[in-house]
Amino acid sequence: MSHPARLLAESARLAAACTACGECVKVCPMPAFAGLPAAEPALVAAGMRAVLLGQPAAPEGVAWVAACTRSGQCNAACPERLDVAFMLRLAGMRAKGATGEAPLVAVKGDAGWASRVKAFARMTMTEEEQAKWL
Predict the structure, then answer these.
(1) Cβ atoms of residues 91 and 48 within 8 Å
(2) Rounded distance, CA 76 to CA 120, Å?
């Protein structure tokens, strides 16, 4: 299964299990920290679900997805015992256009990304493997 297909399938599965009760939003520290306007928790959670499903989402939900730092406080608050932080990670990927849709949030460029990946990969290679790879 391709990465986009897996992302879509997992997003749909988790969105179906989420009741959008808003308990996760109530305990999230990010709205105040990121300066997000106050919003009804259920509306914000429903917006996150809509992003997961690739549907039109309330701006409050999209903003919450973009502000998530995965503090994990949401996981303990979820009455459905879902991994809300993971759901937000998937929603963030979808919001950035990972499945080929137009991005809902700005995608930051990182010019040094490739060199850091190479440096990390080299730490696990023997000198012989490094010589072949470089």
Answers:
(1) yes
(2) 33
